[in-house]
Each structure stands twice: as structure tokens, then as C-alpha cells.
Design goal:
The chain has helices spanning about 5-15, 20-40, 80-85, 110-135, 205-215, 215-220, 250-255, 260-270, 285-290, 315-320, 325-335, 345-360, 365-375, 380-385, 390, 400-415, 445-460; strands at about 45-50, 55-65, 80, 95-100, 140-150, 155, 160-165, 180-190, 195-200, 225-230, 235-245, 275-280, 300, 305-310, 340-345, 435, 465, 470. The chain is an alpha+beta fold.
């Protein structure tokens, strides 16, 4: 290959593959070195450099200048001082002298080796380009074409590369056929030995938030902000929004004229219901909004344990809980509080039974028992086992001595009757109340372990790609709601 041909190849490969010229030149230099090393020996110190003026790759062999008898000279590594001074008059013993040598003629095996070296360099460069392009797009919505199923994961063609949409990240009930357009959230970009691996999701709350960012200009302009999001993919979601401009209604901005904006998001999520609520830094107000459309009668806070006991009218109980506990469960995830929903009838029953129970303490009348109950104590045993600091929160017992006397009298009752008054309440039948706790936040390690377990579970089977019908089916049971 002459200089003109070599320059043409460099330009053509760089243009077709989008790879920098320097990377291609480095690959060619490496290929020449691999062939030259076989000709001059593994101990020879060689360097190859692309000559931009001549358009050729120059090969240099570095030898140490020594003074030695010809028969003792290691020709591949050493050069006699006399020969060295013919090339460089200033050479002295101990110098490293670079001598230009002829590049080897490429035989069939050498040409194959050089070809592999070049291809590997080009492949690595392409992988690096793809990784750098998509790592900066992490957290964006990506659109591609469904191609096939691999180990239960849907492979999405993005043009330059493929991405994986795991079965667990597909909305329950969704089905995709080869050639379908698929939109998803780019959750992670990882460099592996096989190149960059892109992971997509359609079930993450971040995908829902990003969809609203696309549909709502006020969110893109940072006038409206989505503070929190809780989601049960394919069923129902709740988002809490706030506005930095008092003249802009955050809920109205997300809903849009005649609901067009939120309907576009719902359509993309295959009919998933979305509740948009105003965010508030007042926990009680926020929880009331999160449990809408149910009407809340009263809320009792336990800030230390981040628990709220919420009383509703009997006819509002099922509405507050929602189908299979969905409404209160999403509200708990959204607010980060443990929510205990109880009907008015059951709360009144619990109150009367607790007040009756607490009156067994010597010197405690009905009014005092009401105060103890309001402080969070449901029975005599709880009073007996409470700390003095907690008992001082009871009205009339803020003095440590009075609190200690109350504790001692309760302990005396427990010692006398045992567990007979430990509850004082009829055993719970599960009716008239419901409890929901916020979902635990998983760290990166836990998410990686979940992904590994899912891949191992899918390794034995998974969805099938039926070529003759062109359908890829993912059944609702394949992806469990979290």
C-alpha cells in the first residue's frame, strides 16, 4: 500500500465510523509494530510513527551504544560505538540510538494479525464513542425499536447501539412486537467487556416525572417543580407539585387545558391513573391532600416514629384505603409517613375501651384517663413500662415526682392482675382500619442484586419471540408490582 492509499484509508475509515484520525493512525502503528516484532525479535525495542509529510509509517529500532567485539555484540539490542558515530557523530557509550529500519513486508499471517489489531482498536474506539454519548444522556427519555427477546429482556435498537429493557421494568400488561416503537427512561449506562450496556425502564417514578417535564413547559422552565412521586406501574400514581410563581397553579399546569397534558402522559403509560396534588411542607395538610378524594376528620401525629393516626367517617374508610389498599399505600410512599387509617366508629370504641382500662389505675378518673390516652397510652401496662420523660407529657403530670407516682400505681395494678389489663381492648378483627408504611429506599447495591436475581431467574426461560406471527408477548404475571 503506497502513501496515497494509506492516507485515503485513514480518511475513509474515520469518516465512515466517526472515529478520530489519531485513533486510526494509532491502530496502524500498532499493526506495523506487531509484524516488526516478529522480524526483529521480541527483545528489539521498536517504535512506529506515522509521517504526516510522506504519508507513511516510519519504523525505528532503538539500540544501546556499546564498545564490544563484533562476535559479542547483541545486534538486536546493541550497536558498536564506531557504527553509532557514523550515524550520529555525537554518540557516546550508553546512549540509546534510534535507527530507522525498513518496515517488514506483510505476509498472510502478518496481514491477518494487523487486520485484527486494527479492527480491535476501531471497535474499542466505537465503544468509547457510544459510551461517552449515552452516559451524558442518563436520566433522559430514549426512543427505539423493539427487536427481540434475550433471556427475558427486550432488546431495543437505538440506531448506533442496543439497549435492554428488563422484563421487570415493563409495565404489567404491556406487550411489544418486533418493530414497535418503544419509549423508556435511560436508567443506567455501564461499560462492560462486551462494550457499553444501556438499561431502560418504564416502571420507575423518574420516567413519570420526565414525561411530565416533556409535556409541561412550566416544569421545563422550572416554574413548576415535581417534589415527590409514588407509583404502582400500570395501576396508579401520585405526584406532588409546587410552584415558584404564586400566579401559576402547579396542579392546573400539569393537568393542562381540558386535561390534555395529563392525558398524554396517561396514554403513554397505558391508562395508568395519575393523582396530581399540591405539595406542602405542613405534614398534616400534605397527608390530607395525598389521601384525596377521601375526606379526613382528624389526624394524630407521632413525629418521633413518623406515624399518623388518621380518623375518617365510616363512609369514607374504603375511599381513603382504596382498592386493595392502593390509595393509602401510595400516600404513605409519597409522604414518607406511616399512615394508620381508622374509622370513627372503631376509634370511638378503642377510645372508650382504653379510657375504661386506664381508670383501673388508683386515683385516675375518666377525665384524667382521657388525658393519658391523648398522650398516646392505650392501657395500664404501657403506662407502667413508660419512661418518666414520656409520662411528663401527660397533662397534670409534668412534674417528675407525679409522673413517677403514676408509673408506680400502674405497675402495682399490673403486678396484681397480670395481663388481664394489658390491652383492655377487644382483639382487633382487621375491620375498620388499615396501615400503610413508606417503601424502603434501595441503594445501588440492592438494586444491582435485584437485577442479578432477575437475570438468573430469567436465564432458564422467558418470553418467546415468534417469528412467523411477529409477536412478542409479555404477560402481566411476568412483572410483579413492587
Amino acid at each position: 500500500m503506497n502513501a496515497t492509499d494509506l492516507s485515503r484509508v485513514i480518511e475513509a475509515v474515520g469518516k465512515d465510523r466517526g472515529i478520530k484520525r489519531e485513533i486510526i493512525i494509532s491502530a496502524l502503528e500498532q499493526a506495523v509494530l506487531s509484524a516488526a516484532q516478529k522480524k526483529y525479535g521480541i527483545n528489539a525495542v521498536l517504535e512506529a510513527h506515522y509521517n504526516t509529510e510522506s504519508g507513511e509509517i516510519d519504523l525505528f529500532q532503538f539500540k544501546k551504544v556499546v564498545e564490544s567485539e563484533p562476535e559479542m555484540l547483541e545486534e538486536s539490542e546493541e550497536i558498536d560505538i564506531g557504527d553509532a558515530r557514523k550515524l550520529d557523530p555525537d554518540a557516546v557509550i550508553g546512549d540509546e540510538l534510534g535507527i530507522k529500519v525498513d518496515a517488514p513486508e506483510f505476509g498472510r499471517i502478518d496481514a491477518q494479525t494487523a487486520k485484527q489489531v486494527i479492527f480491535q482498536k476501531v471497535r474499542d474506539a466505537e465503544r468509547e464513542i457510544i459510551f461517552n454519548e449515552y452516559v451524558h444522556r442518563k436520566g433522559e427519555i430514549i426512543t427505539g425499536i423493539a427487536r427481540r427477546i434475550e433471556r427475558g429482556n427486550l432488546v431495543i435498537d437505538l440506531g448506533k447501539t442496543d439497549a435492554l429493557l428488563p422484563r421487570s421494568e415493563i409495565i404489567p400488561g404491556e406487550t411489544f412486537k418486533p418493530g414497535d416503537r418503544v419509549q423508556a427512561y435511560l436508567s443506567d449506562v455501564v461499560m462492560t467487556t462486551r462494550g457499553p450496556q444501556l438499561y431502560l425502564t418504564r416502571t420507575s417514578p423518574k420516567y413519570l416525572m420526565k414525561l411530565f417535564e416533556v409535556e409541561v413547559p412550566e416544569i421545563r422552565e422550572q416554574i413548576v417543580e415535581i417534589k415527590l412521586c409514588a407509583r404502582e406501574p400500570g395501576a396508579r400514581s401520585k405526584i406532588a407539585v409546587t410552584s415558584k410563581d404564586r400566579d401559576v397553579d402547579p396542579v392546573g399546569a400539569c393537568v393542562g387545558m381540558k386535561g390534555i397534558r395529563v392525558q398524554n402522559v396517561i396514554q403513554e403509560l397505558k391508562g395508568e391513573k395519575i393523582d396530581i396534588i399540591p405539595w406542602s411542607d405542613n405534614h398534616v395538610i400534605f397527608v390530607r391532600s395525598a389521601l384525596a378524594p377521601a375526606e379526613i376528620s382528624s389526624v394524630r401525629l407521632d413525629e418521633r416514629n413518623r406515624t399518623m393516626e388518621i380518623m375518617v367517617e365510616d363512609d369514607q374508610l374504603s375511599l381513603a384505603i382504596g382498592r386493595k389498599g392502593q390509595n393509602v399505600r401510595l400516600a404513605a410512599q409519597l409522604t414518607g409517613w406511616r399512615l394508620d387509617i381508622i374509622s370513627k366508629t372503631k376509634l370511638q370504641k378503642r377510645t372508650s375501651e382504653s379510657v375504661f382500662n386506664l381508670q383501673h389505675i388508683e386515683g385516675v378518673n375518666e377525665t384524667m384517663a382521657q388525658g393519658i390516652f391523648q398522650a398516646g397510652f392505650l392501657n395500664v401496662r404501657q403506662v407502667a413500662e413508660a419512661t418518666i420523660e414520656n409520662l411528663q407529657k401527660v397533662p397534670g403530670y409534668d412534674d417528675a415526682e407525679n409522673a413517677q407516682r403514676l408509673k408506680d400505681r400502674a405497675a402495682a395494678v399490673v403486678e396484681k392482675v397480670g395481663d388481664m389489663l394489658s390491652s383492655g381492648v377487644v382483639p382487633e378483627d382487621g375491620k375498620g382500619s388499615f396501615t400503610a408504611a413508606p417503601a424502603p429506599i434501595k441503594d445501588a447495591k440492592a438494586l444491582a442484586e435485584d437485577r442479578l436475581r432477575e437475570m438468573m431467574r430469567q436465564a432458564g426461560g422467558g418470553a418467546e419471540l415468534v417469528e412467523d406471527t411477529g409477536e412478542t408477548e409479555t404477560k402481566p404475571g411476568d412483572s410483579e408490582q413492587k
